Every structure is written in C-alpha cells, then in structure tokens.
Amino acid sequence: MINGARGEVGVVLAGAERRLCLTLGALAEMETALGVAGPGALAERMKTLSARDLAAVLAALLRGGGETAFAARLAQEPVDPHAAAEAVARAFAASVA
Q: Which InterPro entries does this chain map to (predicted)?
C-alpha cells in the first residue's frame, strides 16, 4: 500500500506497480552516485542525467520505497526511460507536497 503522507508514490515499471520514496538515505545515495554534495548541487546535476545516472537515481528511490529486490535487478528489467524519468519526477514532487 502506498503511504502518501510519507511521500511515497506508486508507479508502473516493468509491468508492475512499484513504490518510490525520496528518503534521506536515497538522497545520500544519489549524491554519491552522481558525485555531488548537497541538495543544490544535486538539483543542478539532475538537469543533465545520462541513462546510467537516471537508473542510479531511480534505484535509490526504489530502495527508499522498500523495493530493494527490484532496485537490485533494475538493469535487467525492461524499464522505459520516459517512464523512469516520470517516476523520478513524481517522487520528487511528492516529497514537497
């Protein structure tokens, strides 16, 4: 079940509903993966994500939502890049709602 009060969002990826959540741990993971420090640098870096970067961000958000098994095999799953980008945007939007 999706907990909107916690900032979780449900998205369909690889044919199934997945839960994403922007947690402090996910933010730290993203900063490390993208080689930046701090929210301002992360926001700037998010403007120019490669496919690999997008996958790292999506995996962090999936782990934040408790989808650790799917995040671990994300590279082997048929995830549409547009769906991935939309999922990331929805997760960030939910965190400030």
A: Phage_TAC_11 (IPR021791)
